[in-house]
Amino acid sequence: MAGVRVVELAGLAPAPFGCMMLADLGADVVRVDRPGGPAAGRLAPPATGPLQRGRRIVALDLRSPDGVTDLLRLVERADVLVEGYRPGVAERLGVGPDTCRERNPRLVYARMTGWGQDGPRAIRAGHDIDYIALAGALEPLGRAGERPHAPLNLLGDFAGGGMLLAVGVLAALLERERSGVGQVVDAAMVDGSALLTAFLHGMIGAGSWPASRGGNLLDGGAPFYDTYRTADGRFVAVGALEPPFYAALLAGLDLADEGLPAQYDPSGWPRLRRRFTERFAERTRDEWEEVFADLDACVAPVLSPTEAHRHPHNAARGTFVTVGGQLQPAPAPRFGRTPAAVPRPAPDPQRDLLDVADVLAGWPQRR
Fold it and tell me: Rounded to the nearest 5°, which phi and psi values hold at 257?
């Protein structure tokens, strides 16, 4: 994406993640902060954390005519503008899509919201847990007989939000190469979260998701697709769905000759779970990793975020990198001919602030 110019109106979580991905892929992303730096508060991400890497920054007061004028000067030379306001806010500030695209018809105007630009909930507040709830993505998550459990804010904010935004921007830029004009990208976390349940809807339609929460194949109902506590209080993950992998699982657990119930007989699942639980409790997590090292049993250690980088596989692939002295996930996906560079550290809002004129000097007017 080298040469692609992105203006990012500073926000929280999903839009910064999408812009981080664009920056990781080589786009020149200029974040527009409020004067005084990003909004503070308990939910505000670190101003120099991974989500802010690879940027340049300016500060503009968009409630003032001069601030709006300066933003539109950037828009005139940009390829993409990303905003994460509630519907109508950008228009009231005077930087809505119609105004911006009058200045630059080729502009891709990307809008990141929870509920979308229209609909009964469009102007209401919400967070990841609310969006995945309404999308049908939260209800299936959790143990049988227990409450639904949100998996951090990974589904709504990042997979169904920021990543969806990045895909939308890339598609709109590709379409612009054919049409010559930009368009609005409406990236809503409720839409993206619903999209993530496509496979689940397929299973429901095929009759392969018959039970309630925690009683199906992939939600912890099957004992061969679950996590187990080990002797040291840690955990291993088991995903031995196919019969050959399940056979390898039984071999690694030394249970192949025990006469256990058939793998896909739900009536025998309680017994299988008891035996797996007992067996995994006999050794530590790392000991079990050694047992299964040469077996295709779909067994993996459950690593914490602070130890994942040390695993030999992640280390060999460079799945994590050090950026400005801080360990972070590396850019993804991988490219054979144009690999992504190690990201630049996030700019310091106090030290690295630029003037709009500095940015425009490096963004010559395009014909």
Answer: -105, 20
Q: How far is it, in rounded angstroms, from Cα 298 to Cα 240?
A: 5
Query: Is residue 157 annotated as part of the catalytic site, yes or no?
Result: yes
- For residue 330, how many other CB atoms are within 10 A of its CB? 18
For the beta carbon of residue 227, count every other beta carbon within 10 angstroms. Answer: 14
Length of the chain: 367
Cis omega before residue 349 (within 30°)?
Answer: no
Which tokens hold the place of 75?
A: 């828009």
**Residues near 332 by Cβ (< 8 Å), separated by ≥ 6?**
24
Q: What is the C-alpha to C-alpha distance for residues 141 and 213, in angstroms, rounded to an integer?
A: 7
pLDDT given at position 38: 57
**Catalytic hit among 127, 186, 311, 348:** 127
Q: Is the peptide bond before 223 cis (omega within 30 degrees of 0)?
A: no
Calculate the CA 54 to chain-centre distance.
Answer: 17
Which segments of the chain have a pLDDT < 50? Answer: none
Q: CB–CB of 266/272 below 8 Å? A: no
Instruction: Report the distance separating Cα 98 and Cα 106, nearest Å.
Output: 12
For residue 172, what are the contacts with CB-CB under 8 A and spacing of at least 6?
108, 110, 182, 183, 185
HEC string of 59-91 equals ECCCCCHHHHHHHHHHHHHCCEEEECCCCCHHH
Tokens 């993640």 belong to 17
Give the Cα-Cα-Cα angle 191, 192, 194 (nearest 5 degrees). 65
Report phi then psi at 94, rounded to 5: 90, 20
Given 24, 70, 157, 226, which residue is catalytic? 157
User: Please, what is the Cα angle at 264 between 262 and 269, to 5 degrees?
Assistant: 75
